Amino acid sequence: ASKAVKDMTEKELAELACTYSALILHDEKVDITAQNLSKVLAAAGVKVKGFWANMFAKSLEGRDINSLTRVAGGPAAAAPAAAEAPKDAKKDKKEEKPKKKEPAPVAV
Fold this sequence. Notes:
Layout: H1 10-27, H2 34-44, H3 51-60, H4 65-72, H5 75-83, H6 87-95
């Protein structure tokens, strides 16, 4: 479930900000250290308590960030939820009228 930033607790906001900061550093191939996390947070104008950057840096130290992001989402993660759909929900889908397909636009 999603939550608007304005509705987040201080803890939730700190976790989200540190997570995004770590992903930015990883994407830029920069070491995920407390100092670098703090720099990204400061550049974003996000203030979190000092222990958050240290805690995230320690928890991600030596971890394969790519493997963590692959597990977090994508089609494979949605498959188990779809498999658990109640049989009644599947019947409702079959009863819906098929939608007409729009012709694809032609490049000129």
